[in-house]
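Extended Data, panel c. Modelled sequence:
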Amino acid sequence: MQINRRKILSGVMSGGITAMTTRRVQGGTLYPSTQRITTIKYGDRAVKQKEVPTQWWRQLVHTRNVRKTLEENYRNRNAVKDVCIGSAASEIEGRKRPSLVVAIDSSEPDIPNLSDSVEGVPVTTQEWIPPEPDTGACNNNCNEYDPAPGGVRVEATDFEDFPGTSCCPARDSDNNPGLITCAHLWSCSSSNLLNRELLQGSSSDTWEELNSVGEIRKWSRGDDFVFADSTTTASDINIRDDINFSGREVRGYVTENGLEEMKSTSGSDNVKKFGINTGLDTGGSIIKTKKSIEICEGEGHDFVEIDLPTLNGDSGGPYFKTYFDEFTNQYYDAVIAIHYGRESDGSAAYNIANDFSIQFGL
């Protein structure tokens, strides 16, 4: 059989998930041994890509489909709180095999009888732990800053001296700059956060003395995020394009495929986290993806669990990774998630970028 070299090169250069290097034979059919996936995006531009084993990639796609089926099957069971994607102990071509983790509330009577494998996908169960948000104390970056980066003390106007952490600089679909943080700084009784102000400054200041980052223009309870636009008339400060004064600009977010790739090789691609209580932590690994969390009687479905310590005050802060861009010869930070609660859960940046047209970084 002749192989069309032009088509192969076209697939490699396209940057999609169909790129190929060598080819294998399976049941008489030729197929690529690797797939190229986009791992980091900045706006609509793919800035980092990686080749992954085709067999692992196909198992991941299959696992995602089985997850959707289980989630639908158990939608009406009170005992089933979550069906998310984890990692099994076994490997596929040197990468952790994708698995499913089902969170069970054992106090409910309708617990399903689950097999340890569904359609070839490993399944484990865990006791469900109700998530709690991390809003409270400040030990790092607790003062007023102008310009203000990600990783500094912020407050809502609902609870005085009940702070969280700014996640990161960003732009909305109108190209306006601002800061992102979590929505649960505001009370669940606040049904509409549009045009509310995000405040920034020291705990020794009263609300009247705190600076305004700007008015909220994008927000979601289920995704636990707000975008405060610094160009609104309420704004007192400018936005700095980094996290924790690192000097590295924020350029993009880790894609859904990028998270799975990182999870499959935990330990070689470390996650970082910053919160105003616990400060900077590094060396984290992604444990679960597509995790569901109930917030203000609603539910978010695109949360990430990461094994880094957190405490009150860290809510809204960034999980991120540092990467090198070969085209600019510079290091940048890509946002992974916005921190929610004490299990080190965060709202996935890829979901916020896709659903709300948010660009991470200025």
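Residues 54-73 form the longest helix (20 residues). This feature is highlighted in the accompanying rendering.
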